[in-house]
Amino acid sequence: MNLWTASPSFAAEPPAALAEVFAMGTDGAAPGFVLAHLTPGARVLWVQDRLSRREGGRPYLPGLTGLLGGPLELLHLEVPRAVDVLWALEQALGCAALSAVVGEVWGEPAALDLTATKRLALRAERGGGRAWLLRRAAAPALSAARERWRVAAMPSPPAPDDPHAPGEALWRATRFRSRRGALGEWLARRDPVQRGIAFLRPGDGWEALGAQAARPDRRSA
Length: 221
Known about the structure:
Layout: E1 18-23, H1 29-35, E2 43-49, H2 50-56, H3 61-68, E3 73-79, H4 82-92, E4 100-106, H5 114-127, E5 131-136, E6 147-154, E7 158-159, E8 162-166, E9 170-178, E10 184-191, E11 196-200, H6 206-213
Parallel strand pairs: 1-5, 1-6, 2-3, 2-4, 4-5
Antiparallel strand pairs: 6-9, 7-8, 9-10, 10-11
């Protein structure tokens, strides 16, 4: 039995114009979760403020293309402040050639308030674009983001060809605000067949996958 078929599919939901993802650490779990929503061949503008780049590192293109299972066109931009990230995202949302824009902001800057997120959401909705705000070292405050997530890494299952090596990336994803769908917690992974995210709720076989991965020599994905 494929345990992932037991979970509700998000494929029928229209893309959120603006989604906010709160990282539970400085690892690659939250960026991986964001990119896993895209399809191979996507064109993405990735904007980081200086602290985000210093603490979390730059997006690594070979790793991102490996996650997507296909090519990815990535334009990276580093700017000094959160207000510069917001300006760049707002301008980029007017570009039809981009599949998505991602902005990484460190901490809780005053510039990233309800008004700023509302401007981004409306801009994305008018232009048909998709924007992600990736938040590190921050707690949720007032926001006009259409959906909001908390994402953390989970231990990966063994690789198919090497039981001592980590396999696919798994994430613990909690959607705590949404204007369009259910709230809750899921185990998430990249679905290589459907080219998107697959979700598994606790109780739908999560425990079996957890037992498979919970060995002392497993590493987090």
